[in-house]
């Protein structure tokens, strides 16, 4: 029986991409937590969509959220990066309406590049401080 690359990788003990991201996320979360004064802005990315939430970790509540699945962002011929920018601006607006001006950024183990950076930049431009 011939072994596939994933079988060889699993056999060697190297972690999958998902496991590596989870490890990075845990490493970041050891240092970062959201407080009522400065909640945590969490970004979750999939192959199609991006979701951003502002969370108060002391109570475990989501205060504000925005995603590329919202009706205001959906539709049209836009790239995923353009949609991420719109999600960041929408999140900043919703956070302002909720009285939140400063957050701690949690990139969720993802590299600060591309869609994650676009969302963060547009949230900063919208008035969030981090």
Automatic annotation (TrEMBL):
Transmembrane segments: none annotated. Pfam families: Ribosomal_L18p. Residues 8-24 have a biased composition (Basic residues). GO terms for molecular function: 5S rRNA binding; structural constituent of ribosome. GO terms for cellular component: cytosolic large ribosomal subunit. GO terms for biological process: translation. Residues 1-24 are annotated as: Disordered. Signal peptide: none annotated. Keywords: Ribonucleoprotein, Ribosomal protein, RNA-binding, rRNA-binding. Gene3D superfamilies: 3.30.420.100. InterPro entries: Ribosomal_L18, Ribosomal_uL18_bac-type, Ribosomal_uL18_bac/plant/anim. Part of the 50S ribosomal subunit; part of the 5S rRNA/L5/L18/L25 subcomplex. Contacts the 5S and 23S rRNAs. Belongs to the universal ribosomal protein uL18 family. This is one of the proteins that bind and probably mediate the attachment of the 5S RNA into the large ribosomal subunit, where it forms part of the central protuberance. This is Large ribosomal subunit protein uL18. It comes from Lipingzhangella halophila. The lineage of its organism: Bacteria, Bacillati, Actinomycetota, Actinomycetes, Streptosporangiales.
